[in-house]
Task: structure prediction
Amino acid sequence: EVERNDGSRLEVEVLLRRLNSEEIQCIGRDLTETRRTQRELAHQELQLRTIVDSMAEGIIVIDASRVVVSLNPAAERILGVPRPELLGQPLAPDWQCLLPDGTKLPPEQHPLNRTLLTGEPVDAFQLGFLAGDGQRRWITVNCRALARREGGKVEQVIATFTDITS
Result:
């Protein structure tokens, strides 16, 4: 960090290179704007993380291999499974999911699978499942494709869900 003649401060990266025994090349690059932008982005990321972590709705992100990429504390609570047992792990293929009429939910109809396979959003889909803590819970799920590869194939899906167990 250097101070200009007007008193303002400047963040500078300096590269030195010896040209020969008597000469050194010095190149300076102003990083002030880059560093300011980085600080702003870090602040925005912290704000968004705080918002997501404070929500009552569960949020979970899976990748194309059904591996859990991210989840919020509400998702842990609703699913009844601690974060370390979910994060970085494939989502269990059989959560013993049920349709509202009590029949078993076919895997291809699960909202995460539908969005992962088709790219289409799923809204207000109700299902029941046996949570990790052994309780039967009912949730309303919304899913969206979060990221796509070239060619349009879904790379990540985000699901938000609300516990409607009565």
Q: What stands out?
A: Residues 96 and 129 are 5 Å apart (CA to CA). The mean pLDDT is 93.
